[in-house]
Amino acid sequence: MTRTYTMITAVVLSLVLAAGVTYAKGDDFNSVVKMIEQFYGVKHEGIPFLARAGMTATRTAARIKGGTARRLAEAGSIKLAVFEDQKFAGEFPKFRSTLNNALNQTWMPLVQTTSATDQEQVYIFLREAGEKFNVLVITIESRDASVVQVTLSPENLRLLLKDPEGTGKTITEEATIIDQE
Amino acid sequence: MKTLFQLKPAAFLIAALLLGCSAVAAQTQAPQTSRIELSSLDHLAAKASQTVDVNIDERLMRLAAKAFSDKDADEREIKKLITGVKGIYVKSFEFDSDGQFTAADVEAIRAQVRGPNWTRVVNVTSKKEGNVEVYLLMNGDQVGGLTVLSSEDRELTIVNIVGPVDLEKLGKLEGQFGVPELGIEKTKEKKNDEN
Q: Is the CB of residue A119 less than 8 Å away from at least one CB of chain B?
């Protein structure tokens, strides 16, 4: 009887834990957007559906160090939130620590760059997604910010690891700049 | 089968002692880690015009080793170089003016690489090009990791590689994995010229 009860408890507990992890993984993009909104008292702008469709169809000149123009994100994998012309004033060490604490269970911090003089922050996180990889790039400047999540192939992960800063920038550009090439 | 809580007190004591002994044995046999603590420098970020923090831990290193191709000669070499490496950590600060970091900031890092297994293998002091120190951790006759400490008037960079690394090919990591160009090859040449 006790054994059955223990087994049931273990099964229920593991199901609850698994559900929690899945929820956290799936919702991290939105959590980060909300975190920025709450920390800086700003509001993100929704990207109209047609603009999004345009973005996925557009050819982005994503020039990688030593390489040719190419698309990094897997088709249809881009999640984007932008904050335009708002004030991002606040202690960035505090923001950084809040962000890292929120994401460190499911994401690996790859590169974080900050500039006190220019009030700029860039955070790149990575996690495995089956055979592919999710990358989360958070860029905050004094008046603008963006949160981009994309899926990368193993081949493009290589580019990210070789040149994390450059590739992170390219991922953001790819998601936010519509290049009518 | 009895659980740990169902054991008699004497048996429980013996089990606890055995567990304790094996934990102590594991600790004494474990090689010294070359990971150094860089958080003492975090306060510099508030003054820096640019701060770069790279954290490639063991999980990421494993992914990196898988991601690099065996077909391309350069990538094959990098893959070989990073195989077994357990982490690459970089902290770099650039300032707009002199005197933004102190000798105590640098000393906090240096103090960690003064342990018995650490050896300073490179020490270049140059007013023009700045100072570069390379420290190596030896676990027996194996390289267990290294730390590069590079300082100029307006720049401070620490690169910490955890795990075995081929010193001869170290320069190949510059410009990769967020490791900045530190002129390690030039520094080694300089050291060889001096010898």
A: no
pTM for this predicted structure:
0.74
Phi, psi of A31 (to 5 degrees): -60, -40
In whole angstroms, what is the distance from residue B77 CA to residue B142 CA? 20
**Res A29: pLDDT:** 94
Is the Cβ pair B60, A126 closer than 8 Å?
Answer: yes
**Count of residues making up chain A:** 181
Q: CA-nearest residue of chain A to B42?
A: A93
Q: Where are the domains of chain A?
A: 28-176
Tens-digit pLDDT profile for residues A93-105: 889 999 999 998 8
Secondary structure, 3-state, chain B: CCCHHHCCHHHHHHHHHHHHHHHHHHHHHCCCCCCCCCHHHHHHHHCCCEEEEEEECHHHHHHHHHHCCCCCHHHHHHHHHHCCCCEEEEEEEECCCCCCCCHHHHHHHHHHHCCCCEEEEEEEEECCCEEEEEEEEEECCEEEEEEEEEEECCEEEEEEEECCCCHHHHHHHCCCCCCCCCCHHHHHHHHHHHC
Reading chain B (195 residues) residue by residue, the pLDDT tens digits are 444 445 555 554 455 555 554 444 444 456 678 899 999 999 999 899 999 999 998 888 888 887 888 888 888 888 888 888 999 999 999 999 999 999 999 999 999 999 889 999 999 998 887 899 999 999 888 889 999 999 999 999 999 999 998 877 777 778 788 787 766 666 555 555 554
The burial class, CB within 10 Å (0-12 / 13-18 / 19+), for A155 is exposed
Instruction: Report yes or no: A131 at the B interface, CB cutoff 8 Å.
Output: no
Cα A38 from Cα A32, distance rounded (Å): 10
- Interface mutation target, options B41, B54, B66, B91, chain A, most CBs of A under 10 Å: B54
Interface predicted TM-score of the whole assembly (ipTM), two decimals: 0.73
Give the separation between CA A86 and CA A40, rounded to whole angstroms. Answer: 9
Please judge whether A92 and B51 are an interchain contact, meaning their C-beta atoms are less than 8 angstroms apart. Answer: no
